[in-house]
Amino acid sequence: MFCFQCQEAAKGTGCTIKGVCGKPGDVANLQDTLLFVLKGISWYNEKLRAQQLNPAKVDKFVFDGLFSTITNANFDKESFSKRIIKALQLRSELHARCLAANIALPKNLPDFAVWTAKTVEEFESKAALVGVLNTKNEDIRSLRELIIYGVKGMAAYAEHAWNLGKTNSEVFAFMQHALVATTEDLSVDELVALTLETGKYGVDVMALLDAANTTAYGNPEVTKVNIGVRRNPAILISGHDLKDMEDLLKQTEGTGVDVYTHSEMLPAHYYPVFKKYKHLAGNYGNAWWKQTEEFESFNGPVLFTTNCIVPPKSNATYADRIYTTGASGLGGALHIPERKDGQMKDFSAIIEHAKRCAPPKQIETGEITGGFAHAQVFELADKIVEAVKTGAIKKFFVMAGCDGRMKSRDYYTQFAELLPPDTVILTAGCAKYRYNKLPLGDIGGIPRVIDAGQCNDSYSLAVIALKLKEIFELNDINELPIAYNIAWYEQKAVIVLLALLSLGVKNIHLGPTLPAFLSPNVARVLVENFGISGITEVEADLEMFLETNLS
Ligand code: FSO
Ligand code: SF4
User: Fold this and answer.
1) What is the pLDDT of residues 236-262, one digit of tens each?
2) Can 1-134 and 223-355 be said to share one CATH topology?
3) On the CB side of 453, how many CA atoms lie within 13 Å of its CA?
């Protein structure tokens, strides 16, 4: 295996025996082979699309397949084997459709369009020939993978929107086009252009998901979320999928089983439609990587709707309490199947399981505040603008992104603690758990940590920045008193980063380490054109960030 798609890549270069994330070599290899066949599917589908003959089911198949390969989403070998079999069938069907429609195909079809196999061993061994390292030029490899990881992030957001009935065929077409383009003989300049285009479509897909979430569940509102526990047995729901959240809340209502959010599901509390459910009891625990302790004490079953899963240790007592659904998967865990014919997913097994369990053990008490997505912030705009004009707020720090288990991420807690009291943190994603329980206070009623929501709600932060640019009549988004100190972990953060670049945001600091998949030359392009850099020491970085103040 070889994988370097996330921030935890072993030795800062790549995982080769087993993933630091827990991904075994066989699963990594199957993921590579799946990606290879998805490129073949996209290749045929692009040709069919040009004739408006592309079957709609392909879009979902491709984005769901990509989503399943995101870090910490799916560790289930069997699920990947089945996906490859289905992918090969779908690719054959598309080939036949091209022939039936007299679409000209080259005499020698590329390997991804014809390769086939039957056994899981063959699927696994193909990875050695089609994985990341088969692109020999390190700059081309770096750009190809940067694009693929951005597209994987897009796939996750496209799937959540799709689950809520919102689609964007241009986004789907681009995702497949980009996959195919990574197999072509493009120059570095062409790949850099495609990278920026990926960011543009990243903005589109986040806007799509924002519309899907707010249409279905209302605009997030400022909300205080309980972090203690009640006395009923309960289900913990993790991941990002709000449609799953809705189905679970409906089915648990009146059963005596409470529902708690975990990690990136916390922002569900901010939506008016979810607030109506009295048994939505609170948020339990912290960011994803603390689950090995926190699932023990939760006592009840846990439903993963997406990443981030940490495979339970052999002595974990909660392994049989894990359920997965959607693109997520874990060997040994019960997978709740897709919705059929407009019906809800069937969560009865997990609800019955919860009834047999003890209530959660309290691990903390209190409340955290969030719900500052764009509509809510616009309502507070006068207050915020006034605070900036009077100098009560000197600077905003976008500290969105991901949390992770690396010790060096303590940096973000220390950074938040040391920020001067006239600064405000704008956050989204699970990065917030590094500072959202600190007593950072408020500035004239504006909390010093403004949480917009999940990682995809970084879109809200961009919308807020664009609005402020308009209010302050600035020519450039970079003239705003906003600094970007972003933490990344997996591929959704990659698409968020590319989206910010495409909106013209410069001088983003990315940590705790720069991606292993950036070659020195590609890193230089990002530094020279966008001012991207890493982080150093808390005090030195604070000084550097605070040097440039607009007011
Ligand atoms: Fe975090 Fe995991 Fe949301 Fe990611 S829970 S790390 S960027 O999946 O998607 O922020
Ligand atoms: Fe390693 Fe990250 Fe890949 Fe897991 S996802 S195998 S930790 S690089």
Assistant:
1) 999 999 999 999 999 999 999 999 999
2) no
3) 32
